[in-house]
Amino acid sequence: MEAIQTWVSKNKLTTVGQYRALWASGIGASLAYNSRKRSHLKPSLKLIHARMHAQALTLAVLSGAAVYHYYEKSTMEHGESTHDSAK
Predict the structure, then answer these.
(1) Domain HIG1 spans what residues (predicted)?
(2) Strand intervals (E) in 13-66
């Protein structure tokens, strides 16, 4: 787990760039699910729903990244304050 955290910390912009792939796969998965479901929606509505699902997935991932950034920042500040108080 620590190796993943280190990689994400060092490659933040690369990680953000991968959200586009996540968005595209979310659209594809939603379209595949809706096409197998045999719904009576027009193809345009299926595409709109797929886009909404992909946006929700992207927002969830971005929220997770924000929480991780906050956690990382607070951990670093806490580590520096305990390190300074030890001097």
Answers:
(1) 1-80
(2) none
DSSP state of 41: -
Q: Using CA atoms, how far apart are residues 32 and 85, in angstroms rounded to an integer?
A: 57
Total Cβ atoms within 10 A of residue 68:
15
Summarize pLDDT for 7-61 with one digit per residue, the tens: 767 776 666 667 677 778 888 888 888 777 767 888 888 888 888 888 888 888 8
Q: What pTM did the predictor assign? A: 0.59
Kindly give, in sequence order, each residue whose CB lies less than 8 Å from that of residue 57, ignoring residues fewer than 6 positions away.
Answer: 22, 23, 26
Residue located via tokens 């996540």: 22
Q: Tell me how far CA of residue 84 lies from CA of 24, 50, 81, 87, in angstroms.
A: 46, 51, 5, 6
